[in-house]
Amino acid sequence: MINKITIILITLFFFQFTLSISVNYNNNNYIFDGHLSLEEQQQSSSSSSSSSSSSSSSDAPLQPPPCGDLSVCLFTEINYEGITFEYSIYSGKVDLPYLIRNNVTSFIANADVCFITYDPYMTQQIYNGEFLSNYAIVFGDVVQTLAPGFCKDLPKQF
To answer: What is the dihedral of CA 121, 122, 127, 133, to 10 degrees?
Structure first.
């Protein structure tokens, strides 16, 4: 009986884990387990610079693109551009991939999460429904880890 329950729990955990792996597409580039080839990075930067020069300017506030339920979408460029990383709260505490770490320039939050940096240890609470198109000037250049929920509920040196 215990073996059947254990197998069922492991199967459910594996299924949930595979659904929460952060894979997001932006300009045909993707991050899977934090890896993006140098060629894809160069293509991304050249295509985003050509697309930004051809776009027209507007005084209207920029509306964020869609982001999954109970997720936070992080972007490496202002105005929700560049490489994207989608974090699901079901993933638990996650260290950001090296391409995103210390390089969060805009974000969309569809869940309460805590942005964490370690040197020095600082946290910033992000609430469900928040979004910023230029976050680097606030805290984005030092974000290293995400944790679900509220910062006040984390241990002092998570």
So the answer is: -110
**Residue 19: its H or E element:** helix 2-20
Cα–Cα distance, 83 to 45 (Å, whole number): 9
Q: What CA–CA distances, in Å, run from 152 to 73, 115, 148?
A: 22, 12, 11
- Pairwise CA distance, residues 158 & 74, whole Å: 21
Tens-digit pLDDT profile for residues 57-116: 455 567 888 999 999 999 999 999 999 999 999 999 999 999 999 999 999 999 999 999
* Residue of 43, 5, 14, 13 whose CA lies nearest to 27: 43
CA–CA separation, 107 and 133 (whole Å): 7
d(CA 72, CA 86): 6
List for the chain the helix, strand, coil content (%; round to 5).
30, 30, 45
Residue 71, judged by CB atoms within 10 A of its CB (0-12, 13-18, 19+), counts as buried
